Amino acid sequence: MPRPLAITDDQELLDDLLRIAAAAGVELDVAHAAAHARPYWPRAPLVVVGGDLADELAATSPPARRNVVVVTRTADDPDMWRRCVAVGAHTVLELPEAERLLVEEFGDAAEPATRAGTVVCVAAGKGGAGASVLAASLALTASRAGLRTLLVDADPLGGGIDVLLGQEEALGARWPDVVGREGRVSFAALQEALPTFGELTVLSAHRGEPVRIPREAMRVVLDAARRGCDLVVVDLPRHAGEGEAEALARAAATIVVVPADLRGALATAQTVALLRPGTGDLRLVMRAGTLDPEVVAASLSVPCAGVLPEVRGLVETLDRGDPPPLRRSPLGRFCGELLEALLGGFPTGRTGRPSIGADGP
Q1: Could you tell me the CA-to-CA distances from 262 to 96, 127, 288 in Å, in that order?
Q2: Mean model confidence pLDDT for the chain
Q3: Which range has the top average pLDDT, 141-155, 171-185, 204-218, 335-349?
Q4: What positions does the domain Rv3660c-like CheY-like N-terminal occupy (predicted)?
Q5: Do domains 5-110 and 118-343 have the same CATH topology?
Q6: pTM for the complete prediction?
């Protein structure tokens, strides 16, 4: 596969570029003179032109192409934008301030996005409302329909969503193995490291000492997942920290599960007040109770996305180590309809690939 091309004879700048490329997980081809760049110019997925050779490169009249950037270690050089235009670059990046942007440029060149993963967050309006069950059920339903899905357990006090799936013994990384990650990671590497079942990949909490999820770690995971997944479902705790706030900010929709009773409505009012400033599309999913769901939704000023069907024997099913029963069940139909509303369309076919509980209910 062609590699990004760096054109520079500035050794300090080249050292920076090699370090930044390594952070993005890519290797570079290097041309120390403009003339040496000619064979690589048309096929490199990204060309990074050092400010030191930009005029020399422009003098060779290279063919117009996309994905060219000029990089400099000199701040506020008024002549650098002239050089940018001369070589047909789309921007000038000044180091070290633009290092993260350059990491993204390298990463996008090496691993173009194949999907555009939609992030959906699920939170409980009140403890024990069933948000984790809904999050897992949505992820399972999507993956069984052929959508590449990542289920992210962001609740360090929830006992691990892998247990809810009956996969607590599955080999693979959990959050403690991921929290120190910075920079960029490919979705292929993430998928290889985490427990994966057919189209479903799971990043779960563990059952040791709770681990806080840093914002940077959540950002790395969601960036990778959005490039490589169709759907990302994040199971949130009721009180969001930095990492959870990052997920909320990226969510296309946030679902709050609320029991339709007085205490449920009062508790959810507080939860909604915490979540609303950090996310866009907020919706309720009701659990049947003593109050009319529409009345509860009106009192909270949040639209109701539906009433979650009760599943007889659900606790016993989960305690046996079986996943939530979805196939040919009201819960499965509800999840399919909710996903259709959230995604603007939902596939009904199966890929035939194995998944959790493929032979179950």
Answers
A1: 54, 14, 12
A2: 88
A3: 141-155
A4: 7-114
A5: yes
A6: 0.73
Task: List C-alpha distances in Å: 334 to 141, 153, 310, 319.
Answer: 10, 21, 11, 23
What is the model's pLDDT at position 361?
36
Poorest-pLDDT segment among 113-127, 176-190, 266-280: 176-190
**Cβ neighbours of 206 (radius 10 Å):** 18
Query: 334 or 109, which is more confident?
Result: 334
Position 356 scores a pLDDT of: 53
CATH superfamily of 5-110: Response regulator (3.40.50.2300)
Three-state DSSP string of the chain: CCCCEEECCCHHHHHHHHHHHHHCCCCCEEECCHHHHCCCCCCCCCEEEECCCHHHHHHCCCCCCCCEEEEECCCCCCCHHHHHHHHCCCEEEECCCCHHHHHHHHHHHHCCCCCCCEEEEEEECCCCCCHHHHHHHHHHHHHHCCCCEEEEECCCCCCCHHHHCCCCCCCCCCHHHHCCCCCCCCHHHHHHHCCEECCEEEECCCCCCCCCCCHHHHHHHHHHHHHHCCEEEEECCCCCCHHHHHHHHHCCEEEEEEECCHHHHHHHHHHHHHHHHHCCCEEEEEECCCCCHHHHHHHHCCCEEEEECCCCCHHHHHHCCCCCCCCCCHHHHHHHHHHHHHHCCCCCCCCCCCCCCCCCC
Domain layout of the chain by residue ranges: 5-110, 118-343
Between residues 325 and 142, the one the model is more confident about: 142
The number of CA neighbours under 13 Å toward the Cβ of 314 is 17
Per-residue pLDDT reduced to its tens digit, 251-274: 999 999 999 999 999 999 999 999
Percent with pLDDT over 90 in the chain? 61
Residue 6: φ, ψ to 5°: -110, 130
